[in-house]
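Job type: complex structure
Entries:
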Amino acid sequence: MPERDEPAYDPLQPGEGEAIAPTGQGGPMDLALDEAESLEKVLGDEPTGPAEKARSLWSDAWHQLRRNPVFIVSSLLILFLVLIAIWPQLIASGDPLHCDLSKSQQGSAPGHPFGYDTQGCDVYTRTVYGARASITVGVCATLGAALLGSALGGLAGFFGHWGDALLSRIADIFFGIPVVLGGLVFLSVVTSTTVWPVVGFIVLLGWPQLARIARGSVITAKQNDYVQAARALGAGNTRLLLRHVAPNAVAPVIVVATIALGTYIALEATLSFLGVGLRPPTVSWGIDISNAASQIRNAPHMLLYPAGALSLTVLAFIMLGDAVRDALDPKLR
Amino acid sequence: MLLEVRDLHVEFTTRDGVAKAVNGVDYSVDAGETLAVLGESGSGKSVTAQAVMGILDMPPGRIAGGEILFKGKDLLTMREEERRRIRGAEMAMIFQDALSSLNPVLSVGAQLGEMYEVHRGLSRKVARAKAVELMDRVKIPAARQRVGDYPHQFSGGMRQRIMIAMALALEPSLIIADEPTTALDVTVQAQVMDLLAELQRELNMGLILITHDLGVVADVADKIAVMYAGRIVESAPVHEIYAAPAHPYTRGLLDSIPRLDQKGQELYAIKGLPPNLLHIPPGCAFNPRCPMAQPVCRTDVPPLYEVTESPVPRTTACHFWKECLHA
Amino acid sequence: MPEPILEVKELVKHYPLTQGILFKRQIGAVRAVDGVSFGLHQGETLGIVGESGCGKSTVAKMLVNLERPTSGTISYKGEDITRLPARALKAVRRNIQMVFQDPYTSLNPRMTVGDIIGEPYEIHPEVAPKGDRRRKVQELLDVVGLNPEYINRYPHQFSGGQRQRIGIARGLALRPEVIVADEPVSALDVSVQAQVVNLLERLQDEFSLSYVFIAHDLSIVRHISDRVGVMYLGRIVETGTDTEIYEHPTHPYTQALLSAVPVPDPRARAIRERIILSGDVPSPANPPSGCRFRTRCWKAQERCAVEVPPLAVPQWFPSGPRAHPSACHFAAEKRVVPVTAPPPSPPPAAPPPAAPPTGLPGEERPPGDR
């Protein structure tokens, strides 16, 4: 009979059978279990019982995230923003395009807490409805850039050789395009009033950053011995890439993408401010900020609310990215 | 006595609780003497050394008790400024990984010379000449030509020599070497250990050698302290401990290593794993892995029993040391 | 003697050194492995020792087809496996498996233990039908001394020694005939090393495995090996049975290597002679001409710089334990391992007649040496 090893972090304390409640802490879930087992082992018995408790790195990260106040605050905020982006009627009963010129630039009034803009539109309603454009652009652009970037970067990193060299040079070219100048040039020829040209432009400029991250993290992951081990077993490239490399390379991409989401929202506002992003009648914080900027002395409230909403949204995503990085970064483990 | 550590306790605060890394360590080393601190990873051997050097990360580390007497003065109650003067000048440390312990953007000459500039106030030129002298002393060939080279331009063995040169620069009376040769190949390890022993003799320094290698210990140590779960479980002159260990852990270690000089049968394997420092077993920390464990071992922490008194006292922390000694 | 199960002939691996970003041109080569030959018999353990950079790990990678040799052949049961088409290679891979050095990087942290040990069956579905796999994995866990209930746990929940057992279980899954173990215990704590070494020995008996055991620790290699090859700068410099190598080394590098190993017995201090080599191992990108060890050898003469010593039994040793292949023009026996057998266990092998009973005998000179 082979001698058995004991679990990695056995407390080896006879716990008198008292159960430690698994209170959402990183470790104790398993500790309670191991304690019962190890007691048996100390007494020389075979371990029995249902020793089935899996704890993957993802669930570990989730445990840690749940206890991080930054994560809780930012994710609640984002949840709220997403909800009002989908159903702005939930908290705003008015019509953002219904304006009354007679109320131009008036301050807050009952039922209109944020006052009116130059056109006499309700600032509160417009601020609420503005979330939709920002969140749509942010989420779609991030998804697009992340998918395109990690696919290209991941393949380049995994296979290397000339494909890698080619991709890296192309990415360098895109890195060289100044964002605002590029926006002014490319988007000024577009006449569509939908969000898609802006999304497309941001994806075009954003993918190289994510490709670079994905490439680097794939190169790191593929050097691990477990990839060699699978190769020695006869695993093909598809299996190596999908089962061994990608799951271990995806964390940095997620972190950077989350932070990028915030900056993409800010970029959309910048482009809209410059008049080349979203166009009326789309309601957007960028457009409203642009309209308000010239009236900042007369009616500062017009600027304050959309700009505040924008800052808060960007901040929420960047905070989320920070929290996710803390949870996924193996160096802090 | 050059250095005396008395009842040292060190704790670390972690996400999952307080880890008791060092639980009452006593050891001492005299001028010209070599003390080997032997232990596996997590035994507390390096943490003790860091506490002595005053380079422990605090927090999360915390010295929970004890005293560290260096030439009769307690380092733990000393003012930081005074301690800083001692560090480097009176006691120095050699680390395992020379590459990461040397600054990659400074030439080795500049790093060696810095010791003299900072502590002795020498001019850059004189310091540079001193650096060449030091490199000669640790037998780096063509020292004059290589003094301007950067750490990555040296081989692992040569880098470790530079580390030794740095430690020796101010002729300290105590050197702490933390696994100084673990990263090196055997032939290079022999060179480096040889050099270290020679310099120690020459300068009459005290040497604390921290290692997990029973072979290295047997080669150079005068006395040895075996650590397990943050405690010294056995301490003795080196010849006595190899001839007849008085603690089952020491015995197990000695029996579990394959020998160069004989083919041997199946190796003795200590069962189980080293304990988690968050949950050190009650009683004797070694009891779950001990072949001699009795009920008393699970309840009572063994005190330090005196095995022999003179000339160097020999102690062991086992209730059944007599049985172990004569097994 | 029957035909070896694995035979390596004149194995060479050169890594090109290139310059330039887009248009790379070769400016040299790192000669990691430069003409290595050996055979491995059924049920045997061949130990390969050497210092870092000697090419032993590259040999291991070529044996399991992770690296393609620059030239030379690796024959498994008489068939050269270095130039096989993909399908045939996959079949051969089932029979030669590897155990890796670092138990922390050799297991995929995102996979459960069951997935890791079961992966060989997914890659080679013909070995085990789907419904059978879970049972097989649990059997393997049991074989390597782990609780079969741990099947759903993740690697980071285990200690180093336990992870190495998981790596061994994965290597065993396809019931290979040959296992290549590259430094399988060097990352483990002393007290855990013995557990894993014993496990490897038990498995060898149980499954009649043949091992290529690669390590830098000469004591462990002696313990586990039937035959030993000593490598230096991409070549095997001496090979023989464990007694021949450890008690009757004839190559100066082997002697220096053995004399440098610290022996865990303070009594050895007094009676040991240490050969402290000067200098460092030369770069494999620019190895010395002739005998590669000559730059650090105390016996080197002009001949060593011009003539490559062949790995062959020196003709001045017609028989006896000294008569084993040694790549030195001036091969001479020199005992460097002190005999300090501890009292409890009697010495396993009778000392050879030529050798003095203890301590260090003088050096015997070959007839060709002045």
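Summary: Residues 1-53 of chain A have pLDDT under 50 and may be disordered. The CA atoms of residues 258 and 328 of chain A lie 13 Å apart.
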